[in-house]
Every structure is written in C-alpha cells, then in structure tokens.
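ingest -> validate -> predict -> emit
validate: passed (alphabet ok, no gaps, 193 aa)
predict: started
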Amino acid sequence: MAARSTLTDLELTSLVKQNDKDAFDEIYARYWKKCYNDAYGKLRDAEVCQELVQDLFINLWTKRSEREIVNLSGYLSTAVRFQVFSLYRKNKKAPVFEEPLDHMAESYLQADSLFNLKELKGHIEEWLKMQPEKRREIFKMRFMDDLSTKEISEILKISQNTVQNHLLTATNSLKNSLGVTITACTILMLLKN
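emit:
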C-alpha cells in the first residue's frame, strides 16, 4: 500500500479500472475528507454527508470500468456538488443564497441560444469592474475559484454570513444587470471555467 501513496491520481484511476483495490483505497484515503467537507459545507448534516460520500465512492468502485476520469479531484468535486443539489431538489430546501442559482440554472438552454458567449463574458467583466472591491473578490472566489462560503470567510477573515450577504447582493446585482434569463448561463459558465 505504501507504494500506492506515491502514485498520481491518473495512475491510481488507471489501476482502479484494472480492479486494483489498493489503488481505490488510496483514492478513498486521499479524497474522503475533502468530499465530506465539501458536502458538509453545503448540508450541515454529518450523517447525510457521510452517506452521500459513501455512496459516491461506492459508485466510483462499482462503475470503475465505465468511467474515463482524467481529473480525479475535479470529478469528485463535481460528483459531490451534483449529489448535494440532487438532495436540495429532492427535499425542496436550499440555503437562501444558493437557491436562486439553482432555480436560474433551469433557464440555461434558453439563455445559451440567446447570447454570444464572448459578449456575455465581456459584459460580466464590465459588471465586475463596477462592483465594490470586497464584493468583486468574494464573487470571483465563489464562482470562478469554486470556493465554499466557509473557505472564503476563513481566507478573508470575515464571517460566513458576511460572505453570504455579499454573494446575495452580487447575484441580485448581476441579475439586474444581465436579466434573469442569461444569469443562469453566466453562473454555469463561471462554474465550468
């Protein structure tokens, strides 16, 4: 097992595809805590988060031959985010500052057909320049760097509520600037980049 700890994620995922249980155990050891913390940052329910992460890793193992994973960390982060939002939708509850983004994502296909992506990026850059420095910084950290509100609050040494308030104000401002229809396209684009 010690030899597995020196392997890259890509080497480990390749070995997992070949049914290497030790490689899977190494991936689990590397990423279980990060996946749990990502889920807990959104759900605040230890039992639900443990189950969610357990299911994620079970799925990773049982579907190992079907997956072509190039970026393991990104894959797991996306899988956690997907599971969290699936729970939100299933339970019909979401934090106030997250709910508008989830709702707006439903309009993504409509927005994509209406606007040129380059124009949209240009508009966002202009909008960001007009925002107060702290709000601009928090918005970039959340939607461009994909940091949780807790991580942002720790980095900036401000309360998590302050971060959430800045995000709510920023998303409302962006919504007013771009219009509801293309806001979903904007957020999804930022999350993809």
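The two ends are 35 Å apart (CA to CA).
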